[in-house]
Each structure stands twice: as structure tokens, then as C-alpha cells.
Amino acid sequence: MQVTNKTAVEPAGKKPMGQRVKQFAVDFKRQWELQSMILPGILFMIIFCYIPIYGLLIAFKSYTVIDTIDSAPWVGLQNFEIILSDKYFWESVVNTLAISFLKLAIGFVIPIILAIMIYEVSISRFKKFVQTISYLPHFLSWIVLGGMLITWFSTTGLWNQLLMGLGLISQPENILLDPDKYWWIATLSDIWKEAGWGTILYLAVMAQIDPTYYEAAKIDGASRLKQIWYITIPNMKMIISLNLILTVSGLLGSNLDQTLVLMNSQNRETAEVINSYVYRMGLTQGDFSYATAVGLGVSIVSVILLVTANKVTSKLNDNQSVL
């Protein structure tokens, strides 16, 4: 009778677990100076990212400032039921999606176009000047930029003075008080702030493209536009996919700083986004359980968007995932 050997066999090319642990210990001991540099980052993530996850329990409780997380009474899914019937929450969802989709449709493409334009500039000094000017708004806080916008769009500000000087309007109007214009103001001001900074990754990728590709294309008679279309953009495909995934996963996370600065009593109906709604319900009105429930729901949807966007982009990249 033939006896079957039931001993587990390691796959070819894969070391047993014991050897891998031993090799890791040897490598760590040899590189302990470098390996120890990541310990502060690991501790930071544990303290500020993982330990606070326990606080999500209050989304299922009726929590107040006089309670502890453990002593607060359970209410189950009651907070989530309130969310579904809260019209102000759904207004913030509509505003968030509208602003985020405008930023995705316009703001995602502009850094790519700007990066290509900067890359194609042959004059070094002019290229550095354009990069510096486009990067600068990123380093200014929304408190500063928001104050500038409020001043410019006031009835006596630069915007109205310019339009009246050109004869386009007869009476000054503060467009920040007009709720119908807020979505565009939020979108365009965010692009103004972040478009230059968004070119950094694209420029870094383009700097690594082999110049012989362009030389061969020139010999074949390809124009600059065709070189961009058939050489530059295909080599940027992976980083474009990565940025698209991160942008789509953040569709429900509109800029809180921008909203708090530009929102006022006149434009609140179109300016209130989910993040500002959570801030107002949690820290302003003290309804911590409800605000946590909203935040938890948004996080779950964001993870779903992240996974979906990754699946879609991997299909477009010959089943190669960038995450």
C-alpha cells in the first residue's frame, strides 16, 4: 500500500516562516540605526490613528461630556436613523458632492496641463519663475487666502472695481453673499491654491522620461503635441491613476478650512459641507454621538469609493494596481 506524505511543502522559492523571521531579525540588527527612524512614525500612528478608533463606539451610544465611553447608554442604530431623516445633512451631502465633482472635473486636469506646459518651457529662469508663482498659494493658509477673497469680493473690493471699470456692471455686488455662485467660488479658489502644488509629482515623473524617445519622435516627424500625447502622457499614466484614486476616495471630504472661512449666513445653504456639518453638530452643538455617526458613515463610503476607484483604474492599466 502506498503511503502518502502529508507533510506540508513550502512553495518553490518561498522560505519557511522560521527562516524569514530569523532573516528579518538579522536584517534589523544590521540596519538598526535606519530601522529605528521609523519608530516615531509608528508610535504616532498607533497613538493618533489606531487608539482613537475605540471612540467610534459613541456613534452607537448617547454620549455626553459627563459620560465616559463605557458608561454612556447604548442606543444602537438610532443616530444613523436620525441621519437618514435629517434634511440639513442631505443638503450638506449635495453641496459636498457638487463642489467635489467640480473640483474633480476641473481641478484634476489643470495640474496635468500646467505641469506639461511648465515641462515644455525651454527657458530655465522663466520656468522657475512660473513654478514659484504657482506653488506660492499652497503655502498660505485658508485664513490668509480667505481674507484676501473676502476683501477682493466686497462691494468696494478689487473685483467690483474692475468690473465697474470695464462697464460690465453698474452696481457693486458681493458675490460671496450669493449662494448660487458659491460652488464656483469654492472650486476655482481651491484650484488657484493647489494647482501649482499638484504639478510636483507630474514634473518629477516627466523628468525621468528617456529623452531619446523625443529624439526618435522628432526624427519621425512628430509634432510637439503628438510627442506629448504619445510619449509624455502614457509615461504619466500610473501617477495620474494614483491621484485619481485618492481624489475619488476624498469626494465626501471637502475642505473644512475653506468652508469655515468663506461660509456666511447668506450662502450657508450651498456652502455647508459634510465636514463643516460634523464640526457644527459635534463641537458647536455638543451632539458628539450624532457627529461621530455621520463621520463613521462618511468614512465607510470613502473606503468603498477608494476600492472601487482602484478596481476601475487597474482595469484601465492592464490589471496593474497602483496601490
Model description:
- By secondary structure, this protein is an all-alpha fold.
- It has a single domain (78-316), classed as Orthogonal Bundle (MetI-like fold), CATH 1.10.3720.
- The protein is built from 18 helices and no strands.
- The two termini are 51 Å apart.
- The model is unreliable at 1-11 (pLDDT under 50).
Name a few traits of the molecule.
flat; mainly alpha; 64% helix; MetI-like fold; 323 residues; disordered N terminus
CATH homologous superfamily descriptor: MetI-like
**How many individual domains?**
1
**CATH fold-level name:** MetI-like fold
C-alpha-based Rg, rounded: 26 Å
Number of H- or I-type helical stretches:
18
Order of helices and strands: HHHHHHHHHHHHHHHHHH
Helix content: 55-70%
Gross morphology is flat
Distance between the termini: 51 Å
User: Structural class of the helices, strands and pairings?
Assistant: mainly alpha
CATH class: Mainly Alpha
Largest sheet geometry: none
The CATH architecture classification is Orthogonal Bundle
Look at the structure and give the mean pLDDT. 87
